[in-house]
């Protein structure tokens, strides 16, 4: 079926074959009453765009917890000329794997379009579809810590180790609170605190400190997953190992529905820290030299497991540093940066440092400790302002721009570490400068594993992710978006013309970067909706094996997402 394409047209509410009320009632009974018709919050604005209710809604669309709590909403509201968020007809607000299995069976038997949503953070719109049945895992947020976990069926072959089991509806902030703040351990998850655990693990997944700990997917020990036949399976190194491998980076929404997953725990270092400053160059020539100097400095001093997160090469001749580090205290981190800061200060006419650099470490256990930051008056987190929210319902202030946004363009490219070799640095710097004439280039150093410890690199090789990740020193991201907006709501419509112009700038910028890394790949979850050659870009030479797993566990293509494994059928 997969090769030749799927012959089944999914049933829509207007079709004769749409399930009867009695059939829906049977599903409702099977899932303990948790079948809910979807209320689409934006509908209120479609009928009364000028109302106070609509104004409040658009304010709420900047709150990821508000969005996350609504089965009819997604964290990205749309992408110009690509997709616009649309609610499903019904959702099963799943409590456990049995509820999920009931929904999967129902969708398969009635030939319905089925979608799965956890944290709702897909940029590509893969967790929403009109006229569909939604499996909504948000209610499944149970977290259990283990001191000595052995995957099922692995007794005698696997040493017991500390681990955490997370319900598929949990988000990373909940995991970090339980594992790090409450228990003093580390689990590799995502940088953004409101991303869902199951979506991120299936992407491969990077967090701020991935340059030390590796991919989030590499920490997966076991998943409970409902496959297209409605069976509840365990996938780990000993049971269904092919499915287990595919879940580690093969992309969400393609192989089955994960109900819970278990991740290994690690030791915390003594400190985590951050470096924040900007340098503005006075001219294009000075900016070119600054970029060249930074590339050399990165290669010599930062290209190792201590350093992650970002540097932005901005169009206005500003180099914006917002990096993190692990395993160094403030003094050692300052010493690392001093030569670069001195060199910049020496050329006073050419460069201006925006504000005094912040280079500070905190005890690692306090990194996600909301109270710690609050006591010090440091507004690194934004808080869900609604009554009844929990103290830990927070998101990094730096992620606020992407809540409820509409994407104009989003592309990524792994930059191979060979570009850091002495003879190639000039070429890389030139490409970054040339790209920055069109749009801001974000270098995410934690999203390429070259420079990471051997164990982290080896861990990534055991996943389905594109092997390009292990030889890249960074993932370059170029993106552009606009505020919450929705078509057809006067006063809140997306700016199509502006969005298209921005998309052209992003494309021009990426062309300059691709000239330096022509055969590289893109990160499946942070990439172009219109990615050409997406199979190669996302998975490289892993694609044929992923397609085999897909055929084995979902031969009729019940699960499909845009540019997901098997979607070419
Ligand atoms: C603001 C923002 C910040 C981000 N930061 C990072 C980051 O720091 N690091 C990083 O690596 N990525 C990051 N991402 C990308 C993110 O990891 C992916 O988009 C991820 O897939 C989101 O998972 P989710 O559960 O939140 O999203 P969803 O939209 O709910 O799901 C994403 C995909 O996974 C599928 N899926 C969800 N749950 C399940 C399940 N239980 N079983 C099977 N399939 C499922 C969905 O069908 C969909 O196709 C970020 C995205 C956003 C919007």
Small molecules held by this entry: flavin-adenine dinucleotide
Evaluate the radius of gyration: 23 Å
Question: Percent of residues in helical segments?
Answer: 25-40%
Find the structural class using helix and strand composition.
alpha+beta
- Taking all residues together, what is the mean pLDDT? 97
Secondary structure tally, helices: 18
Number of strands: 21
Unreliable segments of 5+ consecutive residues: none
Strand content: 15-25%
Shape descriptor reads globular
End-to-end gap: 8 Å
Largest sheet descriptor: 10 strands, mixed
Summarize the structure in words.
This protein has 569 residues and is an alpha+beta fold. Helix 10 runs antiparallel to helix 11 (330-346), helix 10 crosses helix 13 (425-436) and helix 13 runs antiparallel to helix 16 (496-516). Helices cover 31% and strands 21% of the residues. It has helices at residues 21-30, 43-47, 52-60, 64-68, 97-109, 172-181, 197-203, 210-213, 241-247, 284-302, 330-346, 370-375, 425-436, 454-461, 468-471, 496-516, 534-539, 543-553, and strands at 35-37, 78-79, 83-84, 90-93, 114-117, 133-136, 143-149, 161-167, 220-226, 232-236, 257-264, 271-281, 307-313, 318-326, 351-353, 358-363, 381-383, 394-396, 406-416, 441-444, 472-482. It contains 18 helices and 21 strands. Strands 2, 3, 12, 13, 14, 15, 16, 19, 20 and 21 form a ten-stranded mixed β-sheet that branches. Strands 7-8-11-9-10 form a five-stranded antiparallel β-sheet. The radius of gyration is 23 Å and the shape is globular. Flavin-adenine dinucleotide binds at residues 75-76, 116-123, 126-127, 137, 168, 190-192, 195-196, 198-200, 202-203, 205-206, 252-253, 257-258, 399, 402, 525-526, 561.
